[in-house]
Here is the input.
Amino acid sequence: MSILALTMGEPSGIGPEILLLAWLNRKREALPPFYVLGDPALLAARARLLKLDIPIVEAEPEGAAAQFETALPVVPLENRLEDAPGRPSPANAAGVIEAIRRAVEDTLSGRAAGVVTCPIAKKPLYDAGFGFPGHTEFLGHLAEEITGETVMPVMMLAGPELRTVPVTVHQPLADVPRSLTADLIERTGEITARDLKERFAFPSPRLAVSGLNPHAGEGGSMGREDAEIIAPAIAALRAGGIDAFGPLPADTMFHSAARRNYDAALCMYHDQALIPVKTIGFDDTVNVTLGLPFVRTSPDHGTAFDIAGQGVARPDSLIAAIKLARTLSENAAKHSG
Here is the structure.
């Protein structure tokens, strides 16, 4: 039986409690076995704070599956974590980073089938000297460092009714037009189509590609990027055998009838991709990193410092992330086998 490696994420946020709640709901949700890379003492303290009767057991990846049914298996980190709900600290950065690194190492070595990460807070990591914009970029760096191969991580938000991929991600809106190139769109589309086929099991993936400007440029009267950058990228994708079409006006491509025509939407910037998918399925949408040599999923929400430790956090998105990681890893294994 395959097992998933989960990271606690930012310990001052809701990561510890949604992990506890996911394990508590493991039978009702038919979750696959998982272990947590984290601090057993912190998780035990958070369980007591929330009055949850959850046994915590220290584990190793190799034996965690056998322990999963009766206790939450936790692989201890070398760097301890401070338990201060709602009060993030750079002192936790080393442990947060260690957990991500070890989860990737476990997955690439075959000890785990995939990585599921709880949300991190970027500012405490930046304050401690973390040199990456976020999870996605750090995961790409780790993949290259461990395997020696060049990768291009691509963010996908995957919900029950919609999957979206932002071509540019964490950039100010003013920087998007000059960051957008036909090559970037083409490479993003190729990675998306490949992973839709190999991991999501779509035999012939269909990609809808949004425009950048209102009305997809309105024939050049509202911007030239749609005709001069996006359209050539779509033509190149089609020439490579990928069923891509557009550029489409973003304001008409996400209603229910339009969504039936594609398997994923390539969008030109962060909010263009994330607003529709989170609006349609906020509680059960999952952040998936495409383009990596391992499966990685995450809840689509943040650390929620304002409710940490109060017992009101919901584990829905984490549960969806765990389920999707199992599906993606099983599909990838079938494809490679």
Observations:
- The chain has a mean pLDDT of 95.
- The two ends are 16 Å apart (CA to CA).
- Residues 3 and 33 are 5 Å apart (CA to CA).
